[in-house]
Amino acid sequence: MKLLVDTSVWSLALRRRASVKPGAEESRLVKVLTEAIADGRVTTIGPIRQELLSGIKEAAQFEKVKKALEPFRDETIATADYEEAARLYNLCRSRGVECGPVDVLICAVAWRRQWDLLTSDAVMKRCMEVVRSG
């Protein structure tokens, strides 16, 4: 099964400064990502790539992260994904969960394709719980 890796996990793996020691959960997530890359299961979408590359101040770091992402082709986002994202946004909101538009799109893409989603973002995890519960 494919694994859609959220910006939060890519950031742990590619943007974290070497001087910052990761916690146990962060180390576990990076290990899962590393294993999934080795297995050829990792996938991404353009909005995740854009989020990850946004806000990098140094050109050399930007190029390093951009190059690290090159092997991962962006999956096509269809009109139905955007429509599902809107439906999921409304569902989450009705249950008191506020998700941003990119986060809910990521959830919709994973949900529609029955992909696993790897994230460290608590709101996105809650959104996926709402999605799974119907």
Largest sheet: 3 strands, parallel
On the 0 to 100 scale, the average pLDDT is: 93
What would you call the shape?
globular
Helix content: 55-70%
SS-based structural class?
Answer: mainly alpha
Radius of gyration: 15 Å
Distance between the termini: 22 Å
In total, the number of domains comes to 2
Largest sheet, order of strands side by side?
2-1-3
Strand content: 5-15%
- For the secondary structure, the number of strands is 3
Structure description:
By secondary structure, the chain is mainly α. It is 63% helix and 6% strand. The chain has helices at residues 7-14, 24-39, 46-53, 59-69, 79-94, 101-113, 122-133; strands at residues 3-5, 42-43, 116-118. A 3-stranded parallel beta sheet has the order 2-1-3. The protein starts with a strand and ends with a helix. The model has no long low-confidence stretch (mean pLDDT 93).
